[in-house]
């Protein structure tokens, strides 16, 4: 690691870890949605909305700290990018749950559970990786695995789209379900953006 002559603001590490832990909470709510009765989904959506608001608060705290810190642990643009991408993940997960409730979708198509399982695994890996930003150790396997998961998510997404357009669903139902699976795919993309940002930071700090 590059030797530094100046002290660094370390509270960012704790804030990134808290943001990632909140994403794990969001992924668990997605998993809960899968097995929930239609009548229970509104309550799950409310809890997801609260988690998304907590994520917004965490992101704003990072931005505030960034604006008030003279010295940062790594480049300011990377801090901003990492915080924004973590926030995007929560936004997409919350949007997916909200759409399921707003559209009154009774049954999600087969394959959505695989999408959500990929997101849950990516959330766990991201939460495990954030504390390692302090030392930049043991991060290579993280971004490699998240990129692999994103490729897996792409394949699942394509199969889901093929399923939706196979003539089983009416046109309106296709539009509703496609929006949900597209947003879940965007969440997978956002996990990859986080991993790519971490890789960029690690390379710069090596």
UniProtKB/TrEMBL annotation:
Belongs to the UPF0111 family. PANTHER family: UPF0111 PROTEIN YKAA. SUPFAM superfamilies: PhoU-like. Transmembrane segments: none annotated. The lineage of its organism: Bacteria, Bacillati, Actinomycetota, Actinomycetes, Kitasatosporales. Pfam families: PhoU_div. This is Phosphate transport regulator. InterPro entries: PhoU-like_sf, Put_Phosphate_transp_reg, UPF0111_domain. Gene3D superfamilies: Phosphate transport system protein phou homolog 2, domain 2. It comes from Streptomyces termitum. It comes from the Bacteria.
